[in-house]
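Anyone up for a design puzzle?
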């Protein structure tokens, strides 16, 4: 049942992200159906040129199923389906990621300029939060089959609050979203982000967190 819900949620995440993004309707030249990037060519200011010889294989990608290993110092592993790994996404305005988090691990807070992110928890329990521009915090623990959305450009983070590895599938409205790490602003969140989350994000103790909170909020 959980597997079925996860698959349905993945499809919903894709559909909602694709069909609610007004920019996509004007993204392609009306005279072309697609533009598979030729990564062997020299890119220009507008990106990679279109591949001249296209086959069905250019529109399929199996890299998201590559085994992930969270046994590393960060405890985070990611499979990416973006322009550089899946050239068929060129001009489509989307990319997808499978993110694995070891138990107790937090994905560092970051933002994607002008980019919406939607996703679904495939396995585990994940605390997902984002801050508005006036530092209002919205957060919730999501489980298998639960979908979430991060509004464009807002600071967000994910933390595995379960006892086993957690996995998420995310879709973002950009082929190569840039990530900007913005940790200090987390101390300005209202309501305050719990200390145990900040301790995991900053990899420090409660005393240090209290000191940083005091300095950054006074």
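Challenge accepted. My sequence:
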């Amino acid at each position: 049942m959980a597997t079925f819900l996860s698959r349905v949620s993945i499809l919903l995440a894709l559909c909602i992200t694709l069909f609610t993004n007004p920019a996509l309707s004007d993204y392609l030249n009306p005279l072309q159906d697609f533009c598979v990037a030729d990564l062997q060519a020299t890119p220009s200011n507008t990106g990679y040129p279109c591949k001249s010889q296209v086959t069905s294989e250019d529109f399929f990608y199996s890299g998201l199923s590559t085994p992930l290993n969270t046994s590393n110092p960060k405890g985070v592993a990611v499979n990416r389906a973006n322009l550089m790994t899946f050239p068929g996404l060129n001009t489509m305005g989307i990319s997808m990621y499978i993110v694995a988090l070891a138990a107790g691990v937090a994905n560092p807070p970051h933002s994607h300029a002008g980019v919406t992110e939607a996703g679904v928890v495939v396995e585990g329990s994940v605390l997902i939060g984002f801050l508005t521009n006036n530092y209002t915090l919205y957060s919730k623990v999501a489980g298998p089959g639960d979908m979430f959305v991060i509004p464009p450009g807002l600071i967000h983070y994910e933390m595995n609050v379960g006892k086993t590895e957690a996995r998420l599938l995310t879709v973002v409205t950009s082929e190569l979203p840039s990530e900007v790490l913005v940790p200090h602003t987390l101390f300005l969140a209202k309501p305050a982000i719990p200390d145990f989350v900040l301790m995991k994000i900053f990899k420090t103790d409660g005393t240090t967190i209290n000191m940083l909170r005091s300095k950054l909020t006074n």
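A detail worth pointing out: The chain has a mean pLDDT of 87.
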